[in-house]
Amino acid sequence: MTETVAGVVLVVLAAALLLAVGRLIRGPSLPDRVVALDLMATIGVAMMAVESLLARQIAMLDAGIVVALVAFLGTVAFAHYLERGGGR
User: Fold this and answer.
1) In the chain, which ranges are E strands?
2) CB-based contacts of 61: which residues, under 8 Å, 6+ apart?
3) Which residues of the chain carry a pLDDT beneath 70?
4) Has residue 88 been placed in a domain?
């Protein structure tokens, strides 16, 4: 039962990832692309968490935490860049 639910969750996350890739490609502006990239990182972390549960490997959760932290720092850096007037 758990494997079936996890499989469905992974399929839904993969569909969400494809939609985020579409937004990354289409834009239309730089902030839209950055938000799409951040969303892709978040979806990737969710996929790592589901895979970690399936494989019963806690090390994958550690990798997901690292990816989430790096994505957060990238978003903060981009917000700082926009605040200084770089996105005009």
Assistant:
1) none
2) 48, 49, 52
3) 87-88
4) no
